[in-house]
Amino acid sequence: MSSIKLVRPLESIPLSGAVIHGNVVYVSGQVGFKAGTSELVEGGVAEQCRQTMANIDEILKEAGSSPLQIVRCGVYLVNIQRDFAAMNECYCQWMGEHRPARSTIGVELARPDILVEIDCVAGVS
After folding, report:
1. CA distance to 47, 63, 70, 94, per residue, from 6 (Å)
2. Facing residues of 101 across strands?
3. Would you say the pTM of this structure is higher than 0.90?
4. DSSP class of residue 99?
5. Which domains are seen in the chain, by residue range?
6. S-S: 94 plus which of 17, 43, 53, 64, CB 3.0-4.6 Å?
7. How far, in Å, CA of 52 to CA of 119, rounded?
8. First to last CA, the chain
9. Which strands form 16-21's sheet, in the order they lie side by side?
């Protein structure tokens, strides 16, 4: 049986930035917080998307993975009709030619100023 490794476990709430099990990393939902803070980047959904993806990149790197090893993403938008195109443009820039499975869902998020959240599952080298 494989062991479980926690990546960036949080003391204040019961979750980790990611969990590695076997050769798979499960990244918890990330938002557009500036690195190491709970302060959102300024701007709209595109800026939050870029920061969210940068945050995921850092977690994947720490876990021994990369965006090119992502097999599935969940994208959660507060205003899916208004923000889908901007999010999708950022997402396409982030993924390049890589095409993992993806769901995009309209939701209410934990804070009213958070416009997008993304989680993912990736392979680990």
Report:
1. 28, 9, 18, 25
2. 72
3. yes
4. -
5. 4-123 (3.30.1330.40)
6. 53
7. 10
8. 18
9. 4-9, 16-21, 24-30, 116-123, 70-77, 101-106
